[in-house]
Amino acid sequence: MTIERTLAIIKPDAVAKGVAGQIITRIEHAGFKILAARLIHMSADEARGFYVVHRERPFYGSLCTFMTQGPCLPMVLEGENAIQRWRDLMGATDFTKAAPGTIRRDFASSIEANAVHGSDSPESAAFEIPYFFSSLELCPR
Ligand code: CMP
Question: Could you tell me the pTM of the whole model?
Fold first, then answer.
């Protein structure tokens, strides 16, 4: 088993609904270590930069507007196979296709307002984690 780090975000829809605490409880019960977390309100430029990989997609503009509509909670999770395990806990991007018991199935309200984000590969985690957190904030403890 590989110990990995992944970037998770509790998105503005979930923070606004007041379910961030329930999502964090699920993260803790699943055995992830939360290495860092910060409540932020992204600017348009910050959202565009974070989702730059999707810049050619038709939903890019709307997604960036959605991510700036209120505070969100990026965090770094660590654990065995953290990238895939966090994606399994989140469920499918489209919450109507997400398995019962997953975070998106329980808390998302649309394919865009889908409650949480997670890195989809080690390469994206390597881009996304330092986008929000410096190495000083990720000291081993
Ligand atoms: P996320 O896992 O953060 O990755 C990209 C985001 O784009 C996705 O979750 C959704 O919030 C948003 N999105 C909006 N429309 C779509 C779509 N049709 N397909 C995939 N992602 C979408």
Answer: 0.97
